[in-house]
Amino acid sequence: MKFIKFILAGTLFGIIMTKSEAVSWYRIQEMFRFQSFHMYGIIGTAVLLGVISVYLIKKFKARDIGGNPIVFHDKDKAYRKYLIGGTIFGLGWALTGSCPGPMFVNLGNGYAGMVVVILGALFGTYLYGVLKNKLPH
Fold first, then answer.
1. What Cα–Cα distance (Å) separates residue 11 from each residue in 29, 92, 97?
2. Were both Cys, which of 15, 30, 40, 47 would link to 36 (CB 3.0–4.6 Å)?
3. How many angstroms from the chain centroid is the CA of residue 58?
4. Alpha-carbon distance 7 to 124, whole Å?
């Protein structure tokens, strides 16, 4: 019962993602082909909400659920690693039509093929863990 809030949050997330069509392979392909503003509007809204949230967290010196202060660290200036990582992430997103959150939402919506995508994501995460010390950070 102590995890019920997480189950409810995940369910709400899934409903919102489904109703907004953010989990739609068609909508994601439209975005990557620059044929529709739909997904850019969703992502832009999320970025704007994130900026406002960070501003408010800093302004009011918010604390996490454990009472610890929320600390933001300065940005890393090494853009090469972000460019490479973002390209790999974007290619996976474009090829599968799904990023990490929607993978599970689509599985919950009954798209059994997402099991292959989830296994691929888990393998990629495992591979990163194995190679982490050999990669530029």
1. 25, 25, 21
2. 30
3. 23
4. 26
